[in-house]
Amino acid sequence: MRKIFCILLSVLVAGTLLTGCTVEVQEEKSDSVSLQYYQYYVNKEETKLEQEDYVPEQETAEFMLQDMTTALNEKKPSGENLALLPKEVELKSYNLNGSTLELQFNNQYSKTSRAREILMRSGVVRTFLQIPGVTGVKFFVGGNELLDSRGQPVGVMNSETFVELWGTDKDAYRYDTFTLYFTDKTGKKLVEEKRNVYYKRSLPRERVILEQLIKGPMVKGNYPTIPETAEVLSVSTADGVCYVDFNSAFRDSMLDLPVDTVIYSVVNSLLDEEKADKVQISIEGKDDAALGDGTSLYNFYGWNEELISALEMQN
Prior knowledge:
Order of helices and strands: HEEHEEHEEEEHEEHHEH
Oligomer: single chain
């Protein structure tokens, strides 16, 4: 009888130990599928967004809304990265209207430079899209709906509204074929040149296009349109417009070409990607800058087919 009791006791202890092991495995599995959240910052060059892990104390919509709003308004930098909101911009209030989050900013929002505004807007939208139940974000400034550069309401934004603007996968590369537009020997017509490029995935395609354009043509009989001393200070796409900011060399060292050839070399090369339907060019942050002959760049440029060489059109 004593022997039977010992056997039963051994079985009971073993079962208890096995039960404990099973619980521990289940807890580890639960932890492994927890959601991951991020806070966003602007890199010191103000050309893209950077992200860092964010762990909320509670994963409820109300808590995360308050916590993210507070973090944005505190404007704390992270290392060399800048806070998402400039110091004069403040998120005044929010309202969850169904699945659309409506954000109210102060009037200083409108004074932010175009390049920084697009980065800021993209980061804010991506921040709040992480909240459970939020599928879109809408901006208001001083009580009025945010307008784009063409004076049209921006409307509801989601993760597809912006091109990729942050620096993840820094060591990953991709291979693409771009169509660049240079000029023929007359300088009056654009000729296309296909170019295969292997580049860092973290770089916006628009920047790669412009940098390849600055390098000049590789096909005999094609001629450059942009001075090799020109630099792309920033490039971003939002609201159907690609915004390009060059340094002063774009204007001061212009090649001896018709202005339209220079401008539409840039415009057609960018719009061939079909991610935007207009291009706005600025110099050193000034979108009302003028070229050497007095031509104002304060304009939205669309695709120009008339300047493309007739020979190219036949091909």
